[in-house]
Amino acid sequence: MNQAASLLGAALLLVLPGVHAQGDMGQILGQLREVVLAENRGSSEVESAAALVAKQSGDGSWPDIDYAGKRDMQWEPSAHATRIQNLAVAYCTPGSPCFGHPPVAAAIHRALGYWR
After folding, report:
1. What is the DSSP secondary structure assignment for residue 101, as one 8-state letter?
2. Taking CA 56 as the corner, what is the angle to CA 87 and CA 102, rounded to the nearest 5 degrees?
3. Do residues 46 and 96 make contact, with C-beta atoms less than 8 angstroms apart?
């Protein structure tokens, strides 16, 4: 569960670039955003963002994830958080085919809304 929370936090940092914190906190958030982007640039997950958008259900879930899963070691719903991060990185990475693409932003918001 901590991994899922970390991934969601990273995704939020990526998709909320317009949120401006002041002083040291703003600098920390900016650096963290750049680290997350740098670690994921060019990954195959970023390349598959368009496929994730296409496979996503209207409610923001993905039909191949067992959201009722309860196994501790391979908690399937954590894949949802990973997909949100992948979409966010693709959306925020210049040169990505999904960079700034409104349907990707909408998919991110639907996915975040699914876990409200």
Report:
1. -
2. 50
3. yes
Each of the 116 residues of the chain gets a pLDDT tens digit; together they read 445 555 555 555 555 555 555 666 667 666 666 766 666 666 555 558 889 999 999 999 999 998 887 776 677 888 898 898 889 888 888 888 888 899 999 999 999 999 77
CB atoms within 10 A of CB 11: 25
CA distance 77 to 65: 6
> What pTM value is reported for the model?
0.69
* Spatial contact of 104 and 53, defined as CB atoms under 8 Å apart: yes
Long-range contacts of 20-25 (CB under 8 A, 24+ apart): none
